[in-house]
Structures are given as C-alpha cells and as structure tokens.
Amino acid sequence: MRIRWHGHSCFEITDRVTIVIDPHDGKSLGIKPPSASADIVLMTHDHSDHNSFKTIRESHKDVFAYTGEFEFKGLKFVGLQTDHDDRGGAKLGKNVMYMMNVDGISICHCGDIGKMPDADVMGRIKNVDILMVPVGEVYTMNVRDVIEFIEAVEPRVIIPMHYRVGGLSMPVNPVDSFLDMVGCDVEHVGNEMDVSADELPSETTVWVFSR
Question: Model's pTM, two decimal places?
Fold first, then answer.
C-alpha cells in the first residue's frame, strides 16, 4: 500500500484500488491542488477545503459524508459521524470519520473532528493501525484534546494533518506544538511512502509527511 499526502487533509491511498480522501482545490488555500486520479473519493464534510471532488482526475465514485457501512470493489468502509466543533455541530456542522482496511492495514481518517467522539465511535476505532488526525487547532480540537484522543485510541501510527504549511492561507497552527506534546517517536517520511502490515512500528510513532 502506498500513502501520499496532497497537503491539508488530502491523502491518496493506493493498493489495487486508489482512494482519495478530502480533496481541496488548492487555489482557495494558497497551495498546489492535488495531482491525483482515483477510483473512489471520500469526503468527510461539506467545506470547500475537503470536498473538491472535481479536482481529482478520471471517473470515480464520490462518497460525501456517508454514515454507515459500504463496500467498493471488495473494500469495506465505515463512516462514523462525529462533530466538527465542541457544541454538537451547532457552529460548524457534522463530520464523518472514515474507517477502512487496505492490504491488511486499518486506517481511520478523522476529517475535521471537533471534539472527542462518543463511546460507540471510540470503540470502533480503538487500536486502529493508522490514525490521520487534524492538529492545527483552528476549526478542530486543540492539541491537548488531540493528545487525549490519541491516547484513548492507541494507534500504531499517527499521521498529523490540517496544519500550517508554506503558502497556506487558512489560519491554522503549525505542527510543532503537537510534535512537542505528543510524547512518542517522530519520523519525517517525505511526501509518500510504501507501507506493509509487517513493517508497521511496534510502538506508537508519528509519521510527518511533507509536500
């Protein structure tokens, strides 16, 4: 399986099927748009920095904020509803986290999670292999709450997203505060990497992607 970061919260996951999650259009954020094609595009919520499915090339199935289980080309997905803010979605609406299993590796993309999910959702994502989580604090959980969330989930790999990078016009914070507080090994892995189940770290590790 290959994971590639397209900036902000957009990731491309490729095995026999290519999945793109939360595509942005680039120009509205001040960064380059994703350069990717896909078989399926997953969108966690209806904000322009997460729902630009037209940016992704080729014909693809588009799944927008879907809650529940679904299949596509033999892959199983689960959409888990959460809140985009700390007021039950009253300010920013709802958010859907997507769980999937690709090449024997379980992945959870948190979208713009705004507060700790309920016990049922936490039970579904407990001990996931890879947790993609926003750490820029603005529009999402603050770093202290993110750390508490991660400690409850106990993933093997944490991939931070939705933080300030060069050129980004959105007023989110850099990744540094999160890395200072997370308390586990940090690896800078570049823009993309190949991952297999038997190569996952035995201790919780942060993989920081670059673009």
Answer: 0.96
Strand-pairing partners, residue 11, are: 5, 21
At 46 the three-state DSSP class reads coil
Does residue 202 sit in helix, strand or coil?
Answer: coil
> pLDDT per residue over 147-180, tens digit each?
999 999 999 999 999 999 999 999 999 999 999 9
DSSP secondary structure, 96-164, as one string: EEEEEEETTEEEEE--S--SPPPHHHHHHHTT-SEEEEE-S-TTS--HHHHHHHHHHH--SEEEEES--
What residues have CB less than 8 Å from 134, skipping those under 6 apart?
9, 110, 111, 112, 113, 140, 141, 146, 160, 161, 162, 163
Sign of torsion over alpha carbons 6, 11, 13, 19: negative
